[in-house]
Design a protein that fits this description.
Two copies of one chain form a homodimer. Chain A is of the alpha+beta class. Chain A contains three helices and nine strands. Chain A has one domain: Roll (Pnp Oxidase, Chain A), CATH 2.30.110. In chain A, a hairpin with a 5-residue loop joins strand 8 and strand 9.
Amino acid sequence: MPDKPSPINPTDNDARNLSVSLIAKARFCALAVLDPNTNHPHVTRIVLGTDPSGKVLSLISDLALHTSALHQNPNCSLLIGEPKTTGDPLIHPRITLQCNARFLPRTHPDYIATRAHYLAQHPKAKLYIDFADFNFVLFTIQSANLNGGFGKAYNLTAQDCSPKV
Amino acid sequence: MPDKPSPINPTDNDARNLSVSLIAKARFCALAVLDPNTNHPHVTRIVLGTDPSGKVLSLISDLALHTSALHQNPNCSLLIGEPKTTGDPLIHPRITLQCNARFLPRTHPDYIATRAHYLAQHPKAKLYIDFADFNFVLFTIQSANLNGGFGKAYNLTAQDCSPKV
């Protein structure tokens, strides 16, 4: 009997380009962390931006559970790519990123350029970007799973979904 | 010195009604599980429906990582409530549900009514609802966190966000 066919397609340039484009266009995403109190998964919405090198980041508050969770365990996952409000939500492409989170101290040499870059992407964040409890967290992609719609699943490396420099 | 004020508001009927409404209107959500291979959080998109009693459920494929993850560890989290595609994504209300997942066998007495109810909500699912690898998973809510926008955070019980019968 033949093996069951794999639901994962071989990665091609269309899959790579779609991934880069989904990430570049995203203004927000779902963030999954481990709740430090229960060790269960916990998913919230965060705003998404990039630093000047194109690395994915967010500006998050110490008051939120996801922030203390990431301080205790930096392993996290982002879901990027939003469906339209009508039609079948599963035909819309989305990508799951497995990431490692790292906070950017205000004293870091990259902080000023990162702040300016983020404000250009999210001008309304100027209302709270300098509050003491808001900090940048950078997401280093470890691997990714692209779902471009039914029968269009791909497993990607970090390089596959990073913009070409 | 006074204590730092809590970012969590006391639960009131507006918060309860908003939660029930967000859940009732949702056609899809983000699902966070523990990846059984890495023990890291993993977040994907799933379609959302309800069973005849109003309990939240989805129809998911055995080919997806979230399905094997839920078979191994039923603790999971759902993010419900989608922002519009323009404007600040954080002003849009959303709710995080902490859930316990339970699969519904096809031989279960509730299966036929659940299938009919789901098809009324998601008619296009008739294309795959009877495929052997698609199964219903029911989410029992343990607790919830409502975020109705800046300064509008609430911690809710399962009862707070369940429709009144």
